[in-house]
């Protein structure tokens, strides 16, 4: 081999490894997802789709440069703890979790893996973050609503059915938010002249008994506060409320899509789309401790006219006019 050819071949060999290293794809990142619903819930695919579409818009394709592992909680505390441990064992770069029980289960397992939560009512009171502007730990995310909004539910009951004098409040006391929501409702009750009674429930049997007791009182109504338990068992709650002809207010639209009467609360899908933005920032190096917890900026009023007619209720035109959605 001539000297010139030898030097050319040597130079090419030296450059080739550097080029090969530069062209190697980035390692696949891993995202864990812990949902508080069952996989067959009609709400579930909408939440997952919003999240994955949000990621795709930011350049993260499931099965391409990111792997997404999903686990379901079904409102079951034991299952949430089991699945939280499974996800952490997979060594994800970040975890998305929905609901307060799931967030609590994850924090029992890890205080180091970054977590983005959605639909948590009181992350400060629950001990998930230090403050909303500066979370300070390994978690941040998107709140469901502020406590003050709970008083609005009682106002809607009176607007729908002015004769209502006694209202049962269905809540999951296992969540710190249950007490906070009831406190805001009590404050509104004193102004509206309504007697409110809390019903603490933890399973379908307790839900059934609570609604039956509530229905025995004359001029009664029902408020369902936000919780994973209520979301998972909403078909039961809606069926019993209709059976006992109880005017009932719910915290989210998906209750009304399932046949409930009226809801007032934030969009339940949007936080999962927005969570993709925080996940993206964490995958690119930012820390949850530095990303402020965000609160909803818009609340939706949704009414079901068919349910109203079945209860013998005529909804005020003023309510229908300001409703964000009327389901016929």
Protein described:
By secondary structure, this protein is an alpha/beta fold. The protein folds into two domains: 29-144 and 268-290, Response regulator (Rossmann fold); 147-265 and 300-327, Response regulator (Rossmann fold). It has 13 helices and twelve strands. The protein has helices at 3-23, 43-57, 77-89, 100-109, 150-160, 176-192, 204-216, 228-232, 234-243, 253-257, 270-283, 305-310, 317-322; strands at residues 29-35, 66-72, 94-98, 115-120, 139-143, 166-171, 195-200, 220-224, 248-250, 262-265, 300-304, 325-327. The strands form two sheets. The protein has a seven-stranded mixed β-sheet, sandwiched between helices. A five-stranded parallel β-sheet has the order 2-1-3-4-5, sandwiched between helices. α4 (100-109) links the parallel β3 (94-98) and β4. It is elongated and about 65 Å long. Mean pLDDT is 91; it is low at 6-14.
What topology does this entry show?
Blueprint: H1 3-23, E1 29-35, H2 43-57, E2 66-72, H3 77-89, E3 94-98, H4 100-109, E4 115-120, E5 139-143, H5 150-160, E6 166-171, H6 176-192, E7 195-200, H7 204-216, E8 220-224, H8 228-232, H9 234-243, E9 248-250, H10 253-257, E10 262-265, H11 270-283, E11 300-304, H12 305-310, H13 317-322, E12 325-327
Parallel strand pairs: 1-2, 1-3, 3-4, 4-5, 6-7, 6-8, 8-9, 9-10, 11-12
Antiparallel strand pairs: 10-11
Helix pairs in contact: 2-11, 3-4, 5-6, 7-9
């Amino acid at each position: 081999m001539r000297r010139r050819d030898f030097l050319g071949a040597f130079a090419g060999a030296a450059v080739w490894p550097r080029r090969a290293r530069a062209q190697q794809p980035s390692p696949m990142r891993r995202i864990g997802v812990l949902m508080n619903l069952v996989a067959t819930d009609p709400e579930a695919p909408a939440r997952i789709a919003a999240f994955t579409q949000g990621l795709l818009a930011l350049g993260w394709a499931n099965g391409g440069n990111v792997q997404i592992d999903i686990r379901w909680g079904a409102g079951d505390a034991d299952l949430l703890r089991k699945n939280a441990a499974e996800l952490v064992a997979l060594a994800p770069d970040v975890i998305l979790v929905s609901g307060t029980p799931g967030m609590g289960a994850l924090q029992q397992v890890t205080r180091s893996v970054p977590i983005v939560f959605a639909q948590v009512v009181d992350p400060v009171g629950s001990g998930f973050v230090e403050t909303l502007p500066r979370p300070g730990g390994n978690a941040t995310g998107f709140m469901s609503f502020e406590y003050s909004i709970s008083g609005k539910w009682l106002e809607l009951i009176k607007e729908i059915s002015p004769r209502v004098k006694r209202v049962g409040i269905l809540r999951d006391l296992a969540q710190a938010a249950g007490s906070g929501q009831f406190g805001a409702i009590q404050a509104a009750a004193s102004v509206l002249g309504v007697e409110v009674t809390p019903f603490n429930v933890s399973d379908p049997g307790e839900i059934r008994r609570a609604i039956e007791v509530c229905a025995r009182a004359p001029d009664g109504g029902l408020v369902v506060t936000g919780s994973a338990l209520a979301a998972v068992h909403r078909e039961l709650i809606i069926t019993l409320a209709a059976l006992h002809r109880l005017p009932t207010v719910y915290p989210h639209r998906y209750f009304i899509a399932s046949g409930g009467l009226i809801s007032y609360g934030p969009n339940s899908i949007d936080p999962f789309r927005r969570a993709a933005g925080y996940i993206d920032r964490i995958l690119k190096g930012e820390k949850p401790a530095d990303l402020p917890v965000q609160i909803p900026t818009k609340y939706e009023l949704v009414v079901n006219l068919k349910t109203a007619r079945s209860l013998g209720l005529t909804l005020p035109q003023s309510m229908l006019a300001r409703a964000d959605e009327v389901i016929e």
